[in-house]
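User: For my dataset I need records formatted as: sequence, then structure tokens, nothing else. Please produce one.
Assistant:
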Amino acid sequence: MEQAQFASNVTVAEVLACWPQTVPVFARHHMACVGCAMAPFETLADVTAIYGLHLGSFVSELQREIAAREETA
């Protein structure tokens, strides 16, 4: 499968809708993004800044989770 590519301006809701297997990544970081009313409006850049995470590292973690789940499917 093709590796998921994320731009910093993609919203959390878009990520979760396209790749629901990323929910555990948000949970591991104790992020309240899943089910949050702001998810359709906040970008990955926004939430990583809010939670004090490095955007590039977080995106890499999302990509690894997607790849791992695709391999087992």
